[in-house]
From TrEMBL:
The protein's name: Ca-activated chloride channel family protein
Signal peptide: 1-20
Domain spans labelled VWFA: 167-345
Organism: Butyrivibrio hungatei DSM 14810
Organism superkingdom: Bacteria
Pfam family, one: VWA
TM stretches of this protein: none
Length: 524
């Protein structure tokens, strides 16, 4: 008796089917076609096998949370710019999947990626300036004895008539673990939208990797969008995951098609579950740091659940002149790849670093919220050989500091340090300055950095926060609750929801944020 292969597979593996086709091992995915048939005996002896993925093998890497530093002892706060937003989208996926507060992995929460997900009303760059800077200080909502200092940076935008030729390489994971609807099928729809919205100038190459790497298209003109989209939609998932081979091939092709003064970029799309060749975050870091010297930039797009390897994806972006987004829906795909296409794809400043010098006569102690994995030594700021972060056209970068003013009562206790008032400078010419924000960056094709500095003085202080600081504070508070931060103070879902009602400027993303707060509050 003959039966359809698809039916047989369903009968044989009903209890394990949901997880069986998502594995990333060396087995072969069994794909059915309407014309394929097997006898029962033949099916029983077939060499195909299904493999399963443990219920949840997601992995995250998070260093210790930033604490307070006494300004007199350590006045400099130095970190690399970060425009990633993956953490927020990933946590949104968890909340929409009905995760309770206790179910959410605290290591998956990176506050800066929550804050930087949203748009803010910031000062635009003037003239030929690379950045516009907005600063503000107002009361801290979760600790009445502290203040919040807001530093918002907005990058220069590409001119509407400025044509930059693209040399894009899509590096797509087609291993067995990418079979699920929220992986390769969603990826195909996302890349289709991207291709439709790219200008005709330039080329696209497509490299796939599973057990080995394959070049699907090389140097295909973007004028041939139908052919590119067809190649994307013809991809199928199956096999193990050799990310190392794919990365090397993608950069090789990007370098071969390099466009001087163009946009040379590899876009990696994967669940990060690499199990052949180099696979650990440290090994991937070494590989990608070598490849970035070619002048090719990187965008990392994460997909999927259950076996998602956020630690690897984030490390690739941080070490590869890149940015990192998590795509959990077509709405997010359109936000990242269509609405924010210029920010995602076109770098206007590389190796961007921030160094904030606090005035001990005004600020007793400070704490940077987030950016734990981007902290740098103070001496690295002026060292052009030290890597910073990449900022795209029109991108915004927000840094929030929780500060304790000089003379304010504080519960911060230090084991090894004393704040000796007698050692402070008597420097009256800076009496109204809280801090100086220094920013170093390089032009995309330069090796030498440029410096801009902005003073944060008494004029930035207000008892009533602007909508910028108010909303950023709400988002930071939400992140601290989700991660059970030791610095969350009086943070509460109720305060966030009540404060949201007072906002005048709302958009669909802020409204979605409000709904997420309500959902996790209800489920907890």
């Amino acid at each position: 008796m003959k039966k359809q292969r698809k039916v047989l597979s369903l009968l044989l593996g009903m209890s394990v089917f949901a997880g069986a086709i998502t594995g990333c091992g060396g087995s072969r995915v069994y794909e059915a076609t309407s014309s394929d048939t097997y006898t029962e005996a033949a099916y029983e002896t077939a060499e195909y096998e299904y493999y399963t993925v443990p219920e949840n093998t997601e992995s995250y890497e998070k260093p210790d949370e930033n604490g307070f530093f006494v300004t007199q002892v350590q006045p400099l706060s130095t970190f690399a710019a970060d425009v990633d937003t993956a953490s927020y989208a990933n946590i949104r996926r968890m909340i929409e999947s009905k995760y309770s507060l206790s179910d959410i992995n605290a290591d998956a929460v990176r506050p800066e990626e929550f804050i930087n997900y949203f748009n803010y009303d910031l000062n635009s760059p003037e003239g030929n300036d690379k950045f516009g800077v907005t600063t503000e200080i107002a009361p801290c909502p979760w600790n009445d004895d502290h203040k919040l200092m807001f530093v918002g940076v907005k990058a220069q935008e590409l001119e509407s008539d400025e044509e930059i030729v693209n040399n894009l390489v899509f590096l797509i994971d087609v291993s067995g673990s990418m079979f699920d609807d929220d992986k390769l099928p969603l990826l195909q729809k996302a890349f289709t939208e991207l291709v439709k919205n790219l200008p005709d100038e330039g080329t696209v190459s497509i490299v796939t990797y599973a057990g080995d790497d394959r070049v699907i298209l090389e140097g295909e003109s973007l004028a041939n969008k139908k052919e590119i989209i067809k190649a994307i939609n013809d991809l199928e998932a199956g096999g193990s995951t050799n990310g190392e081979a794919g990365i090397k091939k993608a950069y090789q092709i990007a370098e071969a098609n390099f466009v001087k003064e163009g946009n040379n970029r590899v876009i990696i799309a994967s669940d990060g579950d690499m199990n052949v060749g180099i696979s650990s975050p440290d090994e991937l870091e070494n590989l990608i740091e070598e490849k970035k010297e070619s002048g090719v930039f990187l965008s990392v797009l994460g997909f999927g659940t259950g076996n998602y390897k956020d630690d690897r994806m984030e490390r690739l972006a941080d070490c590869g002149n890149g940015n990192y987004s998590y795509i959990d829906s077509m709405l997010e795909a359109k936000k990242v790849l269509v609405e924010e296409m210029n920010s995602t794809l076109y770098t206007v400043a590389k190796d961007a670093k921030f160094q904030v010098e606090f005035n001990p006569n005004k600020v007793n102690a400070y704490r940077l919220i987030g950016y734990e994995n981007r902290i740098m030594d103070a001496t690295d700021f002026n060292d052009d050989t030290k890597d910073g972060g990449e900022i795209g056209s029109g991108h915004t970068v927000i840094a929030l500091y929780e500060i304790i003013e000089d003379g304010a009562e504080s519960a911060v206790e230090l084991k090894y340090q004393n704040n000796d008032e007698s050692e402070k400078k008597d420097d009256s010419q800076y009496a109204d300055e809280f801090a100086t924000v220094n920013i170093r960056y390089k032009e995309p094709d330069a090796d030498t950095s440029e410096l801009i500095s902005v003073v944060v003085n008494d004029e930035a202080v207000s008892e009533e926060p602007s909508e910028n600081l108010k909303f950023a504070g709400m988002v930071a508070e939400f992140a601290m609750i989700l991660s059970d931060s030791e610095h969350k103070g009086n943070s509460s879902f109720e305060y966030i929801m009540d404060t949201y009602k007072t906002l005048e400027n709302k958009d669909e993303y802020k409204e979605e944020f409000n709904q997420l707060v309500r959902m996790v509050s209800k489920n907890s």
